[in-house]
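Reply to dn_fold:

You asked what the input looked like. This is it:
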Amino acid sequence: MNRGESILLVGGGNMGQALLRGWLADGRRPASVHVVDPDERARAAIGSLGIEASPARPHSFRADVIVLAVKPHLVEGALQDYVDLADGRATLLTIAAGKTIAFYQGLLGSSAAIVRGMPNTPAAIGRGITALAASEVVGSARRRLCESLMTAVGQVVWLEDDGLMDSVTAVSGSGPAYVFLLIECLAAAAVKVGFEKELAERLSLATVAGAGAYAMASGADPAELRRQVTSPGGTTQAALEVLIGDSRALESLLTEAVQAAARRSKELA
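and this is what came back:
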């Protein structure tokens, strides 16, 4: 990847700015990127990165890829200015939630080169994971380009098609909220066994963050890691018997939660 491709980013909000920082850190030139956002404060923040931003599409800027990073309800209106995508010369990389490739093809035609992505909030610090799916006309070079744009903010996985995006939304898209809830609950439990709130939150946050980092670094199966820290008859086993036990209560709750999120994602689409 030569990092010289021209990128038009539509939407300079939190995720858009996270992408910009990642691209710059990845060696892309500020002059190769232009941002469209109607919000003056967002444009000022983007300008501080050395990147030009405007309230509307600059027709003099010829983009190799257009990255759509707007709220789902704004997608159709935003695309009115980009009907020329129908000829397939530029790639549309969209990270707007809930809109299928078929939806974009309905607006732009089957010749449009469309890559759909679902990042999650840790992308804001370069630790996210993004699932990508592409329309049939997207070749390997365009796939590599889109992958490079998203690896600037974390890991990337490819799906055979975007039919699994509702499940991705339910697992990794909504997943950070499940982890935040775990931190909340662990901190609340710590308070009930005698800790002050501040120390309880610090212990809980560091434990969850450290355990996740350890699991990533080790590459071991999470079940094996759990067994390694569970001494027979010890304190961890006593806790796990409550969490999983014969009824596997925690697993059942998480399964129900993920299924509910996936159903809602389908409804919103």
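Residues 197-218 form the longest helix (22 residues).
Hope that clears it up.
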